[in-house]
UniProtKB/TrEMBL annotation:
<dbReference type="InterPro" id="IPR015943">
    <property type="entry name" value="WD40/YVTN_repeat-like_dom_sf"/>
</dbReference>
<dbReference type="InterPro" id="IPR014908">
    <property type="entry name" value="Nucleoporin_Nup133/Nup155_N"/>
</dbReference>
<dbReference type="GO" id="GO:0017056">
    <property type="term" value="F:structural constituent of nuclear pore"/>
</dbReference>
<dbReference type="InterPro" id="IPR037624">
    <property type="entry name" value="Nup133-like"/>
</dbReference>
<feature type="region of interest" description="Disordered">
    <location>
        <begin position="1"/>
        <end position="42"/>
    </location>
</feature>
<dbReference type="InterPro" id="IPR007187">
    <property type="entry name" value="Nucleoporin_Nup133/Nup155_C"/>
</dbReference>
<dbReference type="GO" id="GO:0031080">
    <property type="term" value="C:nuclear pore outer ring"/>
</dbReference>
<feature type="domain" description="Nucleoporin Nup133/Nup155-like N-terminal">
    <location>
        <begin position="89"/>
        <end position="441"/>
    </location>
</feature>
<keyword id="KW-0539">Nucleus</keyword>
<protein>
    <submittedName>
        <fullName>Non-repetitive/WGA-negative nucleoporin C-terminal-domain-containing protein</fullName>
    </submittedName>
</protein>
<comment type="similarity">
    <text>Belongs to the nucleoporin Nup133 family.</text>
</comment>
<feature type="domain" description="Nucleoporin Nup133/Nup155-like C-terminal">
    <location>
        <begin position="758"/>
        <end position="1165"/>
    </location>
</feature>
<keyword id="KW-0653">Protein transport</keyword>
<dbReference type="GO" id="GO:0000972">
    <property type="term" value="P:transcription-dependent tethering of RNA polymerase II gene DNA at nuclear periphery"/>
</dbReference>
<dbReference type="Pfam" id="PF08801">
    <property type="entry name" value="Nucleoporin_N"/>
</dbReference>
<keyword id="KW-0811">Translocation</keyword>
<dbReference type="GO" id="GO:0016973">
    <property type="term" value="P:poly(A)+ mRNA export from nucleus"/>
</dbReference>
């Protein structure tokens, strides 16, 4: 035992006595050089662990409490493993004495100060409070109850709160028990010559007092050798306590470090120079280190750490001391820290550097433990995990009279507000100085000096704390004394030496998680496992995923073999549960990608689903039915993958191959398909079993996933979700269809009927699972993550269409089979309002109050509002249930529906019912133009005209718009023309006495009323089509009506040409080019109506006879009855419609028909030219028309 820890954290002592006027340093937010807050990786709090995976079968393990000593005494045995990795193993070593446990059991380390140590040189351990010191031989506890020596501690007149005495054991060799030195911060020292006096009350001791200034305090007590002990103070002074023997008793003699007093000393020759250059400056001594363990003839060097200075004293064998070196190293260390850590502040006051401990390595090399201030996250991160102090090991080399920083290594520890009771960290060296061990209040860290290896032992309980660390003689083992137990840690120096930084960090992370799930859940384990600060993200993810896979595969290094498969699978579930809990507890879940988190969640849900499937199989086995579809499916999987080497394939699958759980789904379907040829009873039974397998796997996995989304930090949708792949969707869909087909087949056999009932009862669950699969897969296909995948857009569209068409069929199937409530629930859950509207009207629809679902409809209207009413109204319109729609009291919803989904042929009824005559008249006028039925057109125009007139009688009257009224008149005139034209055509059927088909009627009318179209076959076919529509009651367009009027034989009805011209010239909604072309076509037919060759033959005819011929032409009649503005001369009507105009006039007809119509129009034009009708004829007819 070399150094006794100070009674309180050095920072407290230093601030109290050396930095009283220092203003508290303001903490800064993290620097921009890091993407995450530094404190994200701080040592996590050991209380309030984060969420545990929800599982009905799991029982959470309780954390260790130092009060549970009786339980621990029964459970813990020598070499019980607390932690194990490739480089380190931690085991239970021994219990604490009963007296010590009794004291520590109720200790509050925030209010009651305790210190301790393990002196591996003497084999004794020590625990001390401000009042009492307990000492025992720890090796004795291995074989029995150790003897505990109890001593009363010396007291200061004005004791410091939370201060404990400094201590040192005095070795005498193996022949007798050691002695004990206790020193108070105030300089009062007690010495017991032998520990044996502690058995009798410890009253036999010697006392002395160090001559300290009023504000000076003792900071360390160090054993230099068995006769010399060094005391340091807060004023920068060192004292030597020398053990002497007088009268068979040992005594301590104190003396402050002094200069040599011989006649040859420089102090006598040059007293002024010596006193000014070699005297020690004041300051708080934080640590003392000896250069050699044993003194030589030249004495030994003593190194002291005073604030930011390092001193080296030569402690001579002759009894004097000489200060050889006193250097300030702060200005060397600060830039080195900033270069190594991006979190180190550039401002010295904010950096708040502290030099905490010192160890000697060689004549030119020292190790320093330093710390600097963590930076607060101003963004509002949890204060309990923000780092207060960040620690580092600094290697200093002294050569050529000065220090240089050799290296800076991070320490895997950051103190936070939740790090437990404050303590002053201390260094220990292991493996000949190659491994640095640091004792913190709640953690012991190990760092290799020459490799990147680092690890730590963190205490689990907030009521536990470290009291001492001792390096054992073998130099590869150390003992860790805590308030709960004594542990032994063995470190493989060779493994540390060959630590590979490329794979080592990942292995350390994985080992940490492995230890956490293997040992962390044990209540008797005092250790808490956590990641070091700045854990590597890739190492974290790969390690967690590999560990999760090992659990799934029952890796024997993690999962013990057990014949009880239920217990074994429960253990595996607990392992995975503890894994994600461990990740959450360490606040590193955010360092894991969504893909990695989902991999862990998928493994857990697969294992949970497999466990549920096994439990159901166990229930079946208990009924005496060992064979079934599950057994066949597992056998099929094992055979197809050449895994037939197991005695029990079923247990082998659930132990080692649950990763392939989804492979049981196609296997189950294949078994059902092979059973089609079996009898109905066997088929139905096997179908029900297959359904049960599929439902158990998918429902268990999906429910587990959604229940634990927050635990795994999952952001939906899942990436390529295994529970809804296209293969799974097809399997569930086929099983549903097969089940429906079988249960709906009539059967009089009672046994199949019973089997049907079982299969039939699975329909709702199959439908629900199928809907869930569709929805989940669509969510993934619609996500940004899937958008870049090849074929994604088509896959999404196809699946959307498939789901859209499948939903109503599946829901109707459920309703038809007596599961209407399930159908309604599914439609509600997936917001399939169209299906809801359909389901609500499967019985009586009108009147609405007679519908058994009337209350349900109103509930949906109130709950879903426009989302439901839109589909409801659409259903009414599509199914012709307008009376039901208007009979319901949904006026405001109807207004919004018609505003967003115009239906002018319907909405005018709603407007009339609400007295909105102006709106109704506009809608009726618009809809009448587009009406296909003549009767409807006539009705709408009539009602619209009346509505337009009626608006002047409203409470808020609108003036009558004459243009609109004229439009109604024009429309009604057109209907009248339409009726007259139809009557004229039907007159050709008057003489027919037998009933004719529609086509025969069309042919009869064409022969009788359009006899001149023989040379114009395309126009003749057009005439037939239009005649057919009229006979069917359809309303023709203006262009169509004009065509019929001008194409038919008008020998006795030349007024129809005039009517045709009037219709076209008033058709202002027609495109101008088409209207002009239609007018030319009518005039062209007027010109070719008469036999101009006969009319122009004047030989033997009187003038009166010639004039009479001209006057009786269709041309002269039209000129008399139309406005001059629409006159067209023969030369103006030769132009025929182009192919484009014809295609626009008859959209959708084949190109050959377009060309045939074009030829017929050209025939009419050529006929006009051939008849010789020119301007002279036009002027002659015009003259007669206006003079007669």
């Amino acid at each position: 035992m070399e150094t006794s820890p100070p009674p309180t954290p050095r920072k407290t002592v230093q601030r109290q006595y050396s930095r009283q006027s220092t203003t508290p340093v303001r903490r800064l937010a993290p620097r921009a050089s890091t993407s995450r807050p530094v404190s994200r990786f701080a040592t996590p709090a050991r209380s309030d662990r984060l969420s545990v995976v929800a599982d009905d079968d799991e029982v959470a393990s309780s954390g260790m409490d130092v009060d549970g000593d009786d339980l621990m005494d029964r459970i813990l045995k020598s070499e019980t493993v607390f932690a194990k990795s490739a480089e380190m193993q931690v085991t239970f070593y021994s219990h604490l004495p009963g007296e010590v446990k009794q004291v520590l059991r109720n200790a509050d380390f925030y209010q009651d100060a305790y210190t301790g140590d393990i002196d591996t040189f003497t084999g004794f351990a020590l625990v001390a409070s401000a009042e009492t010191c307990f000492v025992w031989k720890y090796t004795q506890a291995l074989t029995g109850t150790p003897t505990c020596y109890i001593f009363s501690c010396p007291q200061d007149v004005s004791p410091i709160h939370m201060a404990t005495p400094l201590h040192a054991l005095v070795p005498y060799g193996s022949s007798r028990e050691p002695g004990l030195i206790l020193a108070t911060p105030g300089g009062h020292v007690r010495f017991w010559d032998s520990l044996g006096s502690g058995l009798a009350g410890g009253d036999h001791f010697s006392s002395l007092s160090l001559e300290l200034a009023d504000d000076e305090r003792v900071t360390t007590l160090t054993r230099a050798d068995s006769q010399s002990y060094i005391v340091s103070t807060s004023a920068g002074r060192l004292f030597r306590l020398t053990l002497t023997s007088l009268g068979g008793r040992h005594h301590l003699s104190p003396r402050a470090f002094s200069r040599p007093q011989s006649s040859l000393s420089l102090s006598r020759l040059l007293p002024t120079f010596w006193s000014s250059e070699s005297s020690s400056k004041s300051g708080n001594i934080n640590a003392v280190a000896l250069q050699t363990s044993e003194k030589t003839s030249l004495g030994r060097h003593v190194w002291a750490l005073i604030d930011f200075r390092i001193q080296r004293w030569n402690m001579s064998a002759e009894g004097w001391e000489e200060l050889e070196l006193d250097d300030d190293v702060a200005e060397l260390i600060r830039p080195a820290l900033r270069a190594r850590f991006s979190t180190a502040s550039e401002d010295d006051s904010e950096l708040d550097l502290e030099l905490l401990d010192l160890k000697f390595l060689s004549s030119t090399e020292l190790l320093l433990l330093v710390s600097y201030a963590g930076q607060d996250d101003s963004a509002g991160m949890d204060v309990s995990i923000q780092p207060r102090r960040i620690y580092a090991i600094v290697g200093l080399q002294h050569s050529a009279g000065s220090f240089q920083v050799k290296d800076v290594k991070a320490v895997p520890y950051q103190s936070t507000s939740s790090s437990g009771a404050p303590t002053h960290p201390r260094l220990q060296l292991l493996a000949s100085g190659q491994i640095v061990v640091i004792q913190f209040g709640d953690t012991v860290t190990m760092c290799a000096r020459d490799t990147d290896f680092m690890d730590r032992l963190e205490l689990k309980s907030a009521s536990d704390r470290t009291l001492g660390v001792g390096v054992m003689a073998g130099d590869s083992e150390l003992l860790v004394l805590t308030a709960a137990t004594l542990m032994k840690t063995w470190i493989d120096a060779d493994a540390v030496k060959h630590f590979d930084p490329e794979t080592g960090r990942a292995n350390l992370v994985r080992n940490t998680m492995t230890q956490a799930i293997l040992f962390g859940s044990y209540a008797e384990n005092p250790l808490h496992f956590s990641f070091p600060p700045e854990v590597d993200e890739d190492a974290l993810m790969s390690g967690a995923e590999l560990l999760s896979t090992q659990v799934l595969q029952s890796d024997p290094s993690i999962i013990r073999s057990s014949h009880d498969l239920h217990a074994q699978m429960t253990t595996r579930k607990e392992r995975l549960s503890f894994l994600i809990k461990f990740i959450n507890d360490n606040a590193v879940l955010t360092k894991m990608s969504q893909r990695s988190r989902q991999k862990l969640a998928t493994d857990a849900e697969v294992l949970y689903a497999a466990h549920q499937l096994w439990l159901r199989h166990n229930e079946v086995l208990a009924t005496g039915n060992p064979h079934g579809v599950l057994t066949d499916a597992v056998q099929l999987f094992m055979e197809s993958n050449n895994l037939n080497s197991f005695e029990d394939d079923m247990r082998a699958f659930f132990r080692f191959h649950v990763e392939s759980l989804v492979s049981l789904l196609p296997a189950a379907l294949e078994i059902v398909q092979k059973s089609i040829s079996n009898d109905a009873q066997t088929l139905l039974v096997r179908l029900a079993q297959a359904n049960n397998i599929v439902l158990t796997i998918l429902q268990s996995a999906i429910s587990y996933r959604h229940y634990n989304l927050g635990v795994y930090g999952i952001t939906l949708p899942m990436i390529h979700p295994w529970t809804s792949s296209m293969r799974v969707i097809n399997i569930v869909s086929e099983l549903f269809d097969t089940t429906v087909k079988l249960v709906e087949l009539p059967s009089a056999d009672i046994e199949p009927a019973r089997a049907k009932i079982l299969a039939k009862e699975q329909l709702p669950e199959l439908a629900s699972t199928l809907f869930s699969c569709y929805h989940e897969q669509l969510q993934w296909l619609k996500s940004p993550g899937a958008s870049d995948e090849t074929g994604n857009e088509r896959a999404k569209t196809d699946l959307e269409d498939r789901f859209k068409h499948a939903r109503p069929e599946i829901l109707e199937t459920l309703r038809r089979n007596g599961f209407a409530a399930d159908a309604f629930r599914l439609a509600e859950d997936y917001r399939d309002f169209r299906s809801l509207a359909s389901l609500c009207h499967k019985d009586k629809v009108y009147p609405p109050h007679s519908n058994p679902n009337a209350m349900r409809i109103q509930t949906y209207v109130d709950k879903f509002k426009e989302d439901f009413t839109t589909e409801l109204f659409q259903w009414y319109i599509e199914h012709g249930e307008l009376r039901t729609m208007f009979a319901q009291n949904n006026g405001p919803y109807l207004d919004r529906y018609f505003a967003e989904h115009p239906h002018p042929n319907i909405s005018w009824i709603h407007d009339l019912g609400n007295g909105r005559y102006n709106e109704a008249s506009h809608l009726l006028l618009t809809d009448a133009d587009n009406a296909n039925e003549l009767l409807s057109k006539h009705l709408m125009l009539s009602i619209g005209k009346l509505s337009h007139i009626a608006q002047s009688q409203e409470e808020d009257p609108h003036p009558i718009n004459e243009d609109i009224l004229d439009a109604f008149h024009d429309g009604l005139d057109f209907v009248s023309v339409h009726d007259n034209l139809l009557d004229d055509l039907k007159s050709a059927l008057a003489s027919i006495r037998v009933k004719q088909s529609l086509e025969m009627q069309v042919d009869t009318i064409t022969k009788a009323k359009a006899s001149k179209l023989g040379d114009r076959r395309a126009l003749q076919n057009s005439f037939k089509q239009l005649t057919r529509r009229m006979l069917q009651g359809k309303a023709l367009s203006v262009e169509d009506a004009a065509d019929v009027l001008s194409l038919k034989d008008n020998d006795k009805s030349v007024d129809d040409y005039v009517t045709a011209i009037h219709l076209i010239t008033r058709a202002h909604t027609l495109p101008e080019a088409r209207r002009n072309s239609a007018v030319r076509t009518i005039w062209r037919r007027i010109y070719i109506h008469d036999d101009w060759d006969r009319i122009n033959k004047t030989s033997g005819a009187t003038d009166a006879e010639v004039n009479h011929r001209f006057f009786n032409t269709a041309l002269c009649h039209v000129l008399q009855n139309v406005n001059r503005k629409v006159y067209l001369r023969p030369a103006e009507v030769k132009e025929t419609p182009t192919l484009e105009e014809i295609a626009s006039r008859w959209p959708g007809i084949p190109q050959d028909e377009v060309e045939a119509l074009y030829r017929d129009y050209r025939w009419e034009s050529n006929r006009l030219v051939g008849l010789g009708v020119n301007d002279e004829v036009f002027m002659k007819a015009l003259e007669l028309a206006h003079t007669s």
